[in-house]
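User: Teach me something about this protein's shape.
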Amino acid sequence: MKLRPKNMKRIIVGITGASGAMLGERFVRHLLGLGHEVHAVLSTGGAQVFDEELGVDLGREPEGIATAFRRHFGGPKRLFVAAADDFAARVSSGSAPMDAMVIVPCSMSTAAAVAAGLTLNLIHRAAGVTIKERRPLVLVPRESPLSPIHLKNLLYLAEIGVHVVPATTAFYHKPKTVEQMVDFTLGRVLDLLKIENKLFERWRESAAE
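Assistant: First, the predicted structure itself:
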């Protein structure tokens, strides 16, 4: 068995149909750029939002979406993409040596499915596996306003150890672009995964220096 580099992590990335395709796209790019291995799963809704928000046509069939998504990033060796309906994929088993999972953006439907233990697609299955194996699971919900049902589901997930990182930004670093606002959220996610990053200016960072 080939050993992975000492500091490389294997991260499952689920991308759902919530608005905020840029969050998922940039998160995958940042992980690859930092030298980590990505195992991505896109729902059909996630692919549709990629087309609508980023102008990236990934198709509508699960297997074709997986192929097109990998091609979108240039086919790097450390990017593996499974079809959303492939329950035999590597990430569906707890025996696969993954380090964590991030669902970004996370739709409220996905949050509800994960909270209820439903397995309607591979994203749900991988999230359930991550929870049962007691690995870090991070949800980045992108919804507003939040209903009592949304809040109840997110509260339950937080109570069982899931990290909930809403797609919000700070303003102390005076962001000038949407990318800077997005990267603030993604940087906080990377912090939870114990992955060093410089995606945003930290509070009083300049003063400390």
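Now, about its shape. Residues 178-192 form the longest helix (15 residues). The longest strand covers residues 100-106. If you'd like, I can walk through any region in more detail.
User: That's plenty for now, thanks!
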